Amino acid sequence: MNRYDYEGQVAVVTGGSSGIGLATVRLLLDCGARVALCARNEGRLEDVAAVLRRDHGEDRVLARALSVLDAEAVTGFAAELRDRFGRCDLLVNNAGQGRQSTFADTSDEEWRAEYELKIFSQVLPTRAFLPMLREARGAIVAVNSLLAYQPEPHMVCTSSARAGVQNLLKSLSVELAPEVRVNSVLMGLISSGQWTRRFAERADKSVSREEWYGSLAERKGIPLGRLGDPEEAAHAIAFLGSRGASYITGAQIDVSGGLSRSI
Fold this sequence. Notes:
- Strand 1, helix 1 (19-30) and strand 2 (34-39) form a beta-alpha-beta unit.
- By secondary structure, the protein is an alpha/beta fold.
- The chain is 47% helix and 14% strand.
- It has helices spanning 19-30, 42-56, 71-85, 108-136, 156-175, 193-200, 209-220, 230-241; strands at 10-14, 34-39, 61-65, 90-93, 139-145, 181-187, 252-255.
- The chain starts with 9 loop residues before the first strand and ends in an 8-residue tail after the last strand.
- The chain has one domain: NAD(P)-binding Rossmann-like Domain (Rossmann fold).
- It is built from eight helices and seven strands.
């Protein structure tokens, strides 16, 4: 179901070659947007981009392999998008995965790397695309985690960094208003690459994916009894970036199947 009008608009999605990022790219294309996506893995990105171009047209897809922590590369990506599409209406900051570690087993280098990834994957794309977003009176949607408000002891480093990201986004929502709206989605357990890898590494290989995911949801206490799909997360992102959310900024949507314990 495509419920969002993106005709004539241009969106950028970082970390767009898999999982939530790719689901968001596909949904935005289905809704009429032209989309620029980036990711680090060049081979996978080109495979994905070839399918997207086939399905949606060569003139609607721009794909570049880069690290969002490389300021020069991100600035170049923004310049290329302006040359190709002439505008930017939506920036989806999606890059970055979680690090499993406790306080006791997280080194100084790991703390620095995690904070750099989580913070600068927001800062550098925002800085690069902000002039175009201001011109378009556009929107930024950040993909963050429920860990920002509900930390887990086995993910202490990531939880702390995610909280910092949420604080940054709230500040940006005030500083960039009224020209640019800034919102976020707080992800719970979404069936993405990291959970696929953990399923593949399960001790009992006789357990099916459905059984393993169901058991995981039960252990985590997810009221809806399952993990979320990347497409469900994409719909929350697309809504916040759309004209339908034109009076929403500085907010967050919880996409966790009820896992959040706050009110």
